[in-house]
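Mods, move this if it's the wrong board.
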Amino acid sequence: METPIEIELVLALALLITAVLSFALEKVRMEITAIVLLALIVILGLCGMDDWPSLNELLSILSSEAPLAIIGMFMVSCALSKQGIIEKFTLHMQSLTRWGFHPFLFLLLVTVAGLSAFINNTPVVVILLPVVIALSAKLEVPASKLLIPVSYASIFGGCCTLIGTSTNILASGFMASSNLYPDMKAMEMFELTKFGFPLMIVGIVFLITFGKKLLPKREALSTILAEIHRKEFLTEAYVVPHSSIVGKSVQDSKISKIPGLRLLDIVRKGKSVLSPLSTAQFIEGDRLILSCKPQGLIEAREVDGFKFSKHTEWGIEKIKTAEAIMVEAMIKPSSGLISKRLSEADFRGRFNLTVIALHRRGKNVGLRLENLKLESGDTLLVLGSESSVEKLRDSSEAVLLDKVPLRVENKPVKSIFAVGVLCAIIFFATLGILPLFVIALLGAGLFVISKSMTPTEAIRSVEWKLLLLIYSMLALGLVMEKSGGAALIAEFIKKICLSGFAEQWQVIGALIILYLCTAFLTELLSNNATISIMTPVSLMVAFQFGLNTDEARALVLTCCIAASASFMTPIGYQTNTFVYTVGGYRFRDFSKFGLWPMLIYFGGTVLLVGLYYDFFP
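Not the wrong board. Structure tokens:
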């Protein structure tokens, strides 16, 4: 008995709705949702349903060019970042602050947008964070007046070229593999520029003109730390043999009752005690890491049971007392600490630093801190000596937000080589001589061969969770197309246009609905998940309206801009998430200010696409 078509359609829509809810609510980690989604699609594919992708069709997704091109561009961006290209731009900006706020902001935003058009915008924003915070003090304006504009400018630039964001590369893959339009070619390098560049100019003018007035005045945590660290000292003490506090818990000992003193850590046999400090019991030889105000340090020396020693008494190392520095450190997207528990990251053992607090998406995460798994963009408040902080600064694990990087290693030959490779990628991709994935992977290979980056750094630069998401969404897109789910949604959009718009305005109505649907989804999901859902739908809408191949491209390009133009929430785009906590913003700050760039891009995209493709009556 043949399986009714309705079953495949219901299953496809159920998977789509479930996936969207899971990504939006974030109760389950993104990669777990992606794995489960892929598994369900494959299992259902083995059932032999007629209107469901077969196993061979699903396996063909692995040979898709778009994910390979995205992998290559991640590696190329890593090599460019490693050569200090972005830092060299930022070092010149320090002297530009004397021109005043508006001229400086103009040059800053143009630089960010220009770099983001050709480099992954995430490292651009990450590297600029401490620069912007430090230079905002010179300009005598809060960092919150600058950080959202920097994030938005990176989005503006990403909408201008094929390689500006992985969203565009993914949409290009859908275009080249469309069954509805088999003669449709992949997106050209500068095909989006005719829309993205004018929108970028208008967006930057808006940020410069109204940003300082409309953006809130928020105090970033990093701006007040200078006062904090001057008032506290780090010191170490040891529990001496036969001490009266041996066997007592921290909360029952006198140490917890000394004003101006905080017990940060207990180090036992070289490792931090993982149990809650309040219930941990002291044993002989425990090393206590203390943060003390001057008076607290004096009182602590009088407490019986542990001692501050300046000599190697009891056969243990010399105890140090130093001025404490408290700084913010944001976990880099390529950090090896991602997905590790805070206890496994071992900040005390590796860097001799104590994590005081962790902020994630604007919230202070305080419960069971030691078992929390770190994520890209997490902001840690760490405390330690100056030498310990510098050790973390020199690592590749986090970017410190306390000051502008003091020096950039001078490698003129490698820097010129890196820029040359990027120009070659742009040149060959523009000519279309080779597929983008071949060009990008060849460029990454040249960087590895020239030792501009190591193979390990190249592998770590790829956001593998994002790749897993992309493959799962490619599979879902195939399911939606074959089951009739995309056709059903397209038919619904067409009915709205037929009933709500005059005949000569129906294609413009389709552009409006596609943009708004894509913009709504991208504020809740990742932009890559959104474009994977909306590209097949936009092609189906074009097909049902009887548009030709060139006109169908217009609908896809509209969705590309809408998927990247995420301004109204701090969770819709990764760069927004990074500045969210660092700038001391609140969720509503993005909603109130981001409404205006959203309207600019919405109205501007519909107008420009409609004029260019002659959709207006």
